[in-house]
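Posting for a labmate who doesn't have an account.
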Amino acid sequence: MSAGARLTRYEENESEERSERGLGIAGRNSPSRGAHRDMGCVFMNYPQKVMAYCPTCKKHTEHKAKLASKGRARSLAWGNRQHERTIRGYVGKVAGEKPVRKQGKRQKIILTCSSCKKKQERVIGTRTKKKLEIKS
């Protein structure tokens, strides 16, 4: 904006709101807004042993908790085959769809029954940016 241009009433109010909130140049839809908050990682603690219902034993037993990890990607999966097909030949890198906004993951743990050794999954809470950590 040029130095001699006048602001409308709406623009004046918005610039005042920004300065009150400490946003400065970065506006409401700016990608840098709130970036300083996500620097450190917050952990949720979860106990190592939990009393939970075992459907095999049909009663509450002590379960060991373990973080669920992602398995190795299958090379013959449909998405991988499609991606290989698109980049075959003299073409550049084909990127996937860009996500609009990062959503938090649903934290998943695997509970192992101490009596029958059967495993079951449990999703902890809703979508969150926090990481799950098993207490030792």
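Reply:
Got it, the structure tokens are right above this. The chain has a mean pLDDT of 78.
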